[in-house]
Design goal:
By secondary structure, this protein is α+β, with helices and mostly antiparallel strands. It has helices at 30-49, 94-107, 118-121, 138-142, 157-163, 171-175, 195-209, 213-222, 281-292, 299-305, 370-373, 377-390, and strands at 18-19, 54-60, 66-75, 80-81, 88-89, 231-232, 245-246, 256-257, 259-260, 263-264, 277-279, 321-323, 328-332, 335-344, 347-354, 359-365. Strands 1, 2, 3, 4, 12, 13, 14, 15 and 16 form a nine-stranded antiparallel beta sheet that branches. The protein has a three-stranded antiparallel beta sheet with strand order 5-11-6. A two-stranded antiparallel ribbon has the order 7-8.
Length: 393
Amino acid sequence: MFRTVLTILASLLVAQCVSASWQTGKPNDPEIQALCQKIQTKIEAWRSKARFPGVCVGFVLADGRSAGVASGHTDIEKEVALKTTDRLLAGSVGKMFVAAALLQLMEEGKIRLDDPVSNWIGKETWFDRLPNSKNMTVRSLLNHTAGVPEYFEQKGFVEALRADADKEWTPFGRLSFVLDAKPPFPVGEGWSYSDTHYILAGMVFEKASGKPLFEEIDRRLLKPLQLTGIIASDRRVIPRLANGVCGPMNPLGFKGNTLEAGKLMTNPQVEWAGGGLATTPLDLAVWAKSLFEGKVLRGETLREMLTGVGGIGGEKPGKSAKYGLGVMIRDTAQGTTYGHGGWFPGYRTEVVYFPDRKNAIAVQFNTDDGKAIGRNLMTYVEEMAQTITSMEK
């Protein structure tokens, strides 16, 4: 319940605030309108202190009511406003969807988490040249304990990416950069975040299901939850994609606007199972609440997903954090949280579910410039959570 005084704000027009079509209650809920107004004020204050072009916030409350709020521009020069219906590239947030799809295959008896990866793709001529190929399991791919290096950090990748903006990448094309590389640690004896793990997981999914990964993500996850704001980022022209801005420290060497005449500067299909989605923050928040409240996976499967690793040597997920199966598990001032962050040139994303409050929040920026954003994305999410909490009894 919200404080009665909030109804005073109901008459205010909330710029860029839209409610989800599936929400319960009245379409013009005065309490949600009041909350949107407060969030609008908050994110305008963010922009006044930082230098990012735009930001979108999506949230879902414990009772299912939801909304999105946007501030700033998708095109600064032309002063085109960023809208809540615009999509942004979500980067590694897509790993949550890949892991959930694989776990559904497990529920169907088509795969086991402790299956050797070789059971599924071991006949590929290059498989034995992968680091730790003989011992990696499906589970070790999903929780980043397989010890396979990051393919896009290897010598020659950036040059190959920038040489052909329209290139259609194959799984082998990505994996070729890590063949014969030295593993950072034996399987299960360290933790190292790597998109390469999820490229392999995507291949395992397609072998086990016999169907294309993102077609199945759409059929299994997006359509049942009516997440029409989320689509595969597998082409240079993506409907309703907001322009992003690459910062000067972009590791792939991109600078400036991500879109020219509506076309991305490179083919985002390169990301595939490492991320691979364009999203709205509202639909991301709906996804997180649905996933972590048991609407996607069975209870025992969700518990497997939320069994995290950390502090096992080598690189760690971070202070007070663990990594489950496609999920970052973090301790915050608002309690334990489940979610994931994402980066793609020109875009930053964070989506978080707060189980104690049963709230979900997603924040997306249309820049990857850390100095322009000014703070860690989780601090923005936590500030949003505090704003929501302060307006609840």
